[in-house]
Design brief:
The chain has 333 residues and is an alpha/beta fold. It has a domain at 99-308: Glycoside hydrolase/deacetylase (TIM Barrel, Alpha-Beta Barrel), CATH 3.20.20. It contains ten helices and eight strands. The protein has helices at 8-38, 41-49, 88-100, 128-138, 156-163, 177-180, 184-202, 222-235, 256-266, 282-297, and strands at 115-123, 143-146, 167-170, 208-209, 238-239, 244-245, 271-276, 301-303. The strands form two sheets. Strands 1, 2, 3, 6, 7 and 8 form a six-stranded parallel sheet that branches. Helix 4 (128-138) runs parallel beside helix 10 and helix 9 (256-266) crosses helix 10 (282-297). The chain is elongated, with a radius of gyration of 36 Å. It starts with 7 loop residues before the first helix and ends in a 30-residue tail after the last strand.
Length: 333
């Protein structure tokens, strides 16, 4: 007996029931999801319990390097603006903050008790790379007391001196005796112009310096020199003179043999040698390799003047500061 197929209306009914079931199920899923989105009580609570990252602290203004302005035609760095009267309290705090942050130069010094300190004044110049090359080849260190140089091709040497492990120190900005020795304020107005420039250029706080002509120069009055020394002590600056001359500062150009003879005649342990880094001092550059060899053969090693900061070579000194009075303790009741 042949089975008959169910009538088409039964199949249609079943299909409608299946579609209704699917619509109901889809609605159930939508309602469930909307409820989860509308009531995220536990999730929100958990998320809010996580600590938010702390904002980065603002940089210390004393440690900020300001972008240097450049000459649009030459590309040379321009110096900071000059001020008539420096804000000494501002610079005192600035220098102290940078010292505490470790922003002064740290230079490894050679071993050995018989040290000598080569110093070069008035650079950078066209001869600075030759001096640096000789020091590199001879593995010797030196200190450069620099002034302002607006030549864009030579301004790179300020950084290079530090990068090659030598000491950068200040010899004023202008090196114009009449200007810098007009008063204590005039000196430090000029000085801090160079200090600010070197900070922004190198990120180092340069606190060692040399008077133009030395602290015993005969251009400045004794009152101005004393005032500069007193202010240096107050600000945390140290000045350095010399006790060994190369003779290259004389009006008549010294020969190579005269420079070597002059230095070797006065060389002593902890001696500070005065030389110059200017375009006119070609014989100083020529004498340097033999001079270093001769000093080394005599047992000397080469450091930078910062190694003598606690007892610097100075022609004129201030009296030692008075020891602080011990504070009287209040007796307990």
């Amino acid at each position: 007996m042949t089975r008959k197929s169910p009538p088409y209306y039964i199949l249609f009914t079943l299909l409608v029931i299946l579609l209704c079931f699917m619509v109901l199920f889809a609605g159930f899923l939508l309602v469930r999801r909307s409820n989860e989105d509308a009531l995220p009580v536990h999730t929100t609570a958990l998320a809010s319990s996580e600590p938010e990252p702390e904002p980065e602290p603002e940089p210390d203004p004393a440690l900020v390097q300001h972008p240097l302005q450049t000459d649009p035609q030459t590309g040379a760095y321009l110096p900071p603006a000059e001020v008539e009267t420096p804000d000494y309290e501002y610079y005192k705090n600035l220098i102290a903050a940078r010292k505490e942050a470790g922003m002064e130069q740290v230079i490894s010094q050679p071993e050995g008790e018989k040290k000598i300190y080569l110093t070069f004044d008035d650079g950078p110049s066209v001869f600075t790379p030759d001096i640096l090359q000789t020091l590199r080849e001879k593995n010797a260190k030196a200190t450069f007391f620099v002034i302002w140089n607006g030549n864009p091709a030579q301004q790179q040497y300020y950084r290079q001196i530090i990068e090659e492990g030598h000491e950068l120190a200040i010899h004023t900005y202008s090196h114009v005796y009449k200007k810098v020795y007009a008063s204590v304020d005039a000196y430090y107005s000029d000085f801090f112009r160079m200090y600010d420039f070197l900070w922004d250029l190198t990120g180092k706080s340069i606190t060692n310096f040399r008077f133009p002509g030395g602290s015993s120069n005969t251009v400045s009055s004794d009152a101005v020199k004393t005032g500069i020394m007193e202010k240096a002590r107050e600000l945390g600056l140290v000045y350095y003179d010399w006790n060994v001359s190369s003779g290259d500062a004389n009006s008549k150009k010294a020969t190579v043999s005269q420079i070597i003879s002059s230095v070797m005649g006065d060389a002593v342990p902890d001696g500070v040698v005065l030389m110059h880094d200017t375009a006119q001092k070609d014989t100083t550059v020529q004498a340097l390799p033999e001079l270093i060899d001769t000093l080394r053969n005599d047992g000397f090693t080469f450091g930078t003047v910062n190694a003598t900061r606690d007892n610097p070579r100075q022609h004129k000194k201030l009296p030692a500061p008075e020891p602080a009075e011990p504070s009287a303790e209040t007796p307990s009741a």
